[in-house]
Structure formats: C-alpha cells, structure tokens
C-alpha cells in the first residue's frame, strides 16, 4: 500500500510529525475554538474523525470542536499539502491549567514520504541535512499561510513550524528568533505575523 490518505495503514503514521504548533494564549475555550475552526478551514482539511484505527467511511464524523479534542485527544483528517496530493493529518491541543493553550497541526512523515520521494529518511542522515530545505520551504510557506489565517481569525502569541518542534514561548523569545533555526518562527508584530523560515 502506498496511499498516503489511508488511516489504517500504520506506515502512514510512522517517522514522527511535521508540525505547525501555535501558542494561542492563556487558557480559554472560546479562543481555542476560534483557532481550531480557523486552522481546519485554512489548512483545507477534509473530514474530521476521532480515530485513526478505522477509515473515515467506517466511522461517524465528529465536529471540529474543543469538546471533540477533549473527548478523543486527537482529531484526524486529510490535508492537501503543496508537496503532492492529500495526506493524513491530525490535530491536538496542549492545555496548561495555570498557563497557555497550544494548538498543533501535524503531518506524519510516513505519509509525506509517500507523497514526495525527496523526503526520504528525513530528519536522519543526509536527508536531514540542509538539502531538505528544498522541499521544506514550500511546506513551511504553506503552513505559515495557514498560521496567518488563524492569526487573522483568532490571534496567537507564537507559531513554530518544523519536525516535532521544541516548544518555547513568546515570552522566552522576547521578540527575537535564533540566528540558526531548525524551525520556522511566526511572531505577531503590529497586527501582522512576521514569518522567519528555518535555515538549517
């Protein structure tokens, strides 16, 4: 099987996740719901399922809501990336009782590698070197566009794009991104989002 849209092919979910992770703000159900709705729409995600153990046609669709995230832990669908056709994707939230809400859209490397051979064994070996920027640039730009739409609809403090990103907060950065970047950074400034791409 080489169909990157199959939920039930375990290979599609292997290899780790390429992510857009957003620090939405202080814990707030309404704000998180606005961001989730905007994210689903901006990424053009098809369907919404609570399980990846069955194909979408074999399970009831669930609403794209914070309540669904809390019930199932992850929401799943398919997204058409700029690489090559649609792939399985997922979304989850990380919520801190006395802190902030994070919302993460992820694309499994197993499915992405089926859609684009350049991905290879990324992030390992020579596939993890800077030559991966050849395909990452298009994917990162697309994810930055998704984030920009989320910002316009719901706002956020910080966005990170990359392979299983290391969570720092906007407060940690103080408005300054690192010179050497494995991840892309999205920082709001003056009512707009400043996108600084990865360079490693």
Written overview of the protein:
The chain has 200 residues and is α+β, with helices and mostly antiparallel strands. The protein has helices at 29-42, 66-72, 109-115, 133-154, 170-173, and strands spanning 17-26, 46-49, 75-80, 86-95, 100-108, 158-163, 184-189, 192-196. It has an 8-stranded antiparallel sheet with strand order 2-3-4-5-1-6-7-8. Helix 1 (29-42) crosses helix 4 (133-154). It starts with 16 loop residues before the first strand and ends with a strand. The mean pLDDT is 94.
Helix percentage: 25-40%
Question: Which secondary-structure class do the elements indicate?
Answer: alpha+beta
Strand content is 25-35%
Tertiary shape:
globular
- Radius of gyration using CA atoms only: 16 Å
Note the run of SSEs as H and E.
EHEHEEEHHEHEE
Question: Which features does this protein show?
Answer:
200 residues; alpha+beta; 8-stranded antiparallel sheet
